[in-house]
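seq as requested:
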Amino acid sequence: MLNHIGITINSQQEISDFYQEILGFEIIKNFQINSELSNQIFEMKNSAEVFLLKKDNIFLEIFISPQGIVNKYNHVCLSYSNRKDLISQAKEKKYKIRIVPREDFDLVFVYDKSGNIFEIKELVK
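struct tokens:
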């Protein structure tokens, strides 16, 4: 069973601008991971501010790292009851959106300003 997804962003401002306003997550708590623990777990020698966010039954553990991180195929897929609204909000706020036309349905990807990729699906009821 999935407990949470950990991702890295470059700026704390993204918490409100993207994760709360666009994706609809709420902050549950925030805390600091010290450099010693960060090194033991992630082999990173820096301390980091961490935010735990929640939407429905999904938890994101977001690490703030001004150095950023390079992602390749990593992405999180989320379903929304009206993805058109989410796409409109993201466009309005100048977030990168990639729509890949497909025969049955379009694939939609929204990028936060740190380069994290979110695949957005229409919630099927």
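The chain has a mean pLDDT of 90.
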